[in-house]
Specification:
Number of domains: 2
CATH class of the largest domain: Alpha Beta
Distance between the termini: 24 Å
Number of strands: 12
Strand order of the largest sheet: 3-7-6-5-4
Radius of gyration: 19 Å
Shape: globular
Strand content: 35-45%
Structural class: alpha+beta
Helix content: 10-25%
CATH architecture of the largest domain: Roll
Length: 295
């Protein structure tokens, strides 16, 4: 596929709920090749179809043997479509705040409205979709957490920049994100934190942590006194586009196995912003055996 250097792809994603109301989400991104641009468009169209319960479009876009990693949803395309009556009953729809592609994978940062079928009236999720060689959506991973109205930093779990920059630094920023997880969160070399995270500006979207390095230190000190510090054990996937990098890890917190989705935004070789979703990994009442990983 012909490479397009610094192609600017601006997408207006208009999502409709089942009452015909319109939610407008503007996502501006920079894409570096046609394959990634096409994959993003496929996923945007898929989200529109899910929001409008358009079964025929979903059938055109999704592989019949769609592999589902959400532990509470059965695997397969038809099983997913069978959820539409529940979504329609509650008027559940997704608002996409961020979207980017890394090869065959497309990452979405979503707000789910009227989301009681997922656990709360309003939920925040990271969704990852894999596009196969035929351009069909073949696999899905996600993690969800309730939306918190009042946060320690005053920032929401989803607000902040959406524009992708530093396209030429994609791999370098992915390496920096790996270092943050391994050295800081896994404890291999925590003294390097100032090499990876800006001491001048660090906008925090975890609802329990304040802005800046001081916010991280304060949170770590508190969790340590409670004998409840996050324990990151394994990185399963790192996906990025320019200045945005998503890491997907597993570990323990609050006495439970957890999946950690961490999205970092980088500027000039330092992390300057962080969003996350932390979800307990269930072990009972599973709808499939695919696990929340298996990348």
């Amino acid at each position: 596929m012909k490479t397009i250097l610094l192609l600017v792809f601006t997408s207006l994603l208009w999502t409709q709920n089942n009452d015909g109301n319109t939610a407008n989400t503007k996502t501006t991104t920079k894409i570096i090749n046609e394959t990634e641009a096409r994959n993003m468009k496929t996923v945007e169209t898929f989200i529109e179809a899910v929001n409008s319960r358009d079964k025929e479009t979903v059938k055109k876009l999704v592989h019949p043997d769609y592999i589902q990693h959400n532990p509470f949803i059965p695997t397969g395309r038809e099983a997913f479509i069978n959820l539409f009556p529940v979504l329609e009953e509650h008027n559940t729809y997704a608002e996409t705040v961020r979207i980017f592609a890394d090869g065959d994978f497309v990452v979405l940062h979503n707000i789910w409205h009227n989301a009681t079928p997922f656990g709360a009236q309003k939920m925040v999720s990271f969704d990852v979709l894999r596009i196969d060689e035929n351009g069909l959506i073949a696999e899905h991973w996600d993690a969800l957490t309730p939306f918190v109205e009042e946060t320690a930093s005053g920032r929401s779990q989803t607000d902040g920049p959406t524009t992708i920059t530093e396209v030429d630094k994609k791999e370098a920023n992915k390496a920096l994100a790996r270092s943050i997880i391994e050295d800081v969160l896994m404890g291999k070399n925590p003294s390097k934190i100032t090499e990876y995270i800006s001491s001048e500006k660090y906008h925090q979207h975890n609802p329990e942590i304040k802005d800046g390095l001081s916010g991280i230190v304060e949170a770590v000190e508190y969790l340590t006194t409670q004998n409840n510090m996050f324990q990151y054990k394994k990185i399963h996937k790192i996906l990025g586009a320019g200045n945005f990098v998503l890491t997907i890890s597993s570990g323990e917190w609050s006495g439970k196995e957890q999946v950690f989705y961490d999205l970092f935004r980088f500027e000039d070789n330092k992390a300057v912003e962080h969003w996350d979703v932390i979800q307990p990994i269930p072990t009972e009442n599973l709808a499939n055996e695919n696990t929340m990983f298996g990348f």
